[in-house]
Amino acid sequence: MTALVYGLYVIAFALFIYGLMGLAGPRTAVRGNLVAAAGMAVAVAATLISIRETGNWILIIAGLVVGIVLGIPPARRVKVTAMPQLVALFNGLGGGTVALIAFAEFLESDGFSHTGDSATPVLAIIIASVFATIIGALSFWGSVVAFLKLQEILPGRSISLGAVQQPMNLVLLLVAIAAGVGVGIGSATGGAPLWWFVIVLAAASVLGLTVVLPIGGADMPVVISLLNALTGLSAAAAGLALNNVAMIVAGMIVGASGTILTNLMAKAMNRSIPAIVAGGFGASSAGGPAGALASERGPVKATSAADAAIQLAYANQVIVVPGYGLAVAQAQHAVKDLAKMLEARGVEVKYAIHPVAGRMPGHMNVLLAEADVSYDAMKEMDDINDEFARTDVTIVIGANDVTNPAARNDPGSPIHGMPILNVDQSKSVIVLKRSMSSGFAGIDNPLFSAPFTSLLFGDAKASVASISEELKAL
């Protein structure tokens, strides 16, 4: 039977890797998700077979039912707008589960005073369990804060204690590690007291809160990716403690892929991961630097749907820059309809996708794909940036921060050095906005007051539909 279990695990791992490869492009992403899900089903089946004699089947079945009931409805009903929040929440639940598994292993082994698997050294179980607890709890509470910020229950700006923030984080980390050492010493002398492990869990939980609260909203996509990587590493550590091969391999895959993605996103923002974790980006409030910039901004030029339609009708090339505003307004279908009308007039329409546009990687790709926008029309930043100088009209829909020329021109800007879309090189720019409020980073955008920029105020979906109606009349 052991050979069967390990054979199923090998099949599951192959499906995990093949599914992950499918996530490399939007054309194969859906298939990749389905393949990876099939791999997880195989891994669960293998685990159930391996514990067929020792498992409490009533609890196992109850857990599966509860998970299905709680997991499927929100996944099916959630709007694409709220997908980043759902990802953050589901990732946090994974980290919290790992921490509870490690805690349960501690209780099961009477404070690690003995283990049911004599082939696994007790010290290895202790180290793996303490590591899983620290990282899992940190990931859970950090993901909860990320969810609350993305859902705008908490302010998206930095919430910091100032100069004492980083020293306090360091103290919490040292307390968690010291308590973990106490668990190890106690286990070597006949079983660690429960309160040592409780201190590990509590310190790591508070650390998860204090690490993510000071991080500004503009960095949240990177934070979600980093927390996802940490959850994977904690799952791998828990797998070592439980001697579960599936958890080890799956956790390492998630940890490695999440780390690579986090690094790529940090580079896309020209920021180091330690700088992001230290917080501060997007920390300004309405009365801070962002507000001062707004007061110095020049006058903006409003436009109408009729004027915008005329500009678009006589253009040779139009680039659409989607951002979170497009997601909020659910304007992707209206944008697709407008693009079809322009293409019927011989206008070439492309879509410029910034790596961190929206609230998570691939957010804009998913939205546009939902409206059947061709994958060939979606261009990554490096592929589209040279096109802006040859573009007659660029339409910006809610992409405040990733089009901000201050990142290139203002050394004093918090986003200086961050690669942006070269929208300001277009001959004409039309920005669709509800109001003059700043983006998620809380930073004013001088693009809005540029002489070649006009603003069309209102709901993005309604504004695009109005432009389409005016275009029909031309």
Describe the 3D structure.
Keywords: Cell inner membrane, Cell membrane, Membrane, NAD, NADP, Translocase, Transmembrane, Transmembrane helix. It is found in: Cell inner membrane. Belongs to the PNT beta subunit family. The protein has 474 residues and is of the alpha/beta class. The chain folds into three domains: 77 residues; 198 residues, no CATH class; 178 residues, 3-Layer(aba) Sandwich (Rossmann fold). It has a six-stranded parallel sheet with strand order 3-2-1-4-5-6. β2, α15 and β3 form a beta-alpha-beta unit. α1 packs parallel to α9 and α5 runs parallel beside α7. The longest helix has 29 residues.
List the keywords:
single chain, 474 residues, alpha/beta, Rossmann fold, 3 domains, 6 strands, 7% strand, proton-translocating NAD(P)+ transhydrogenase activity, NAD
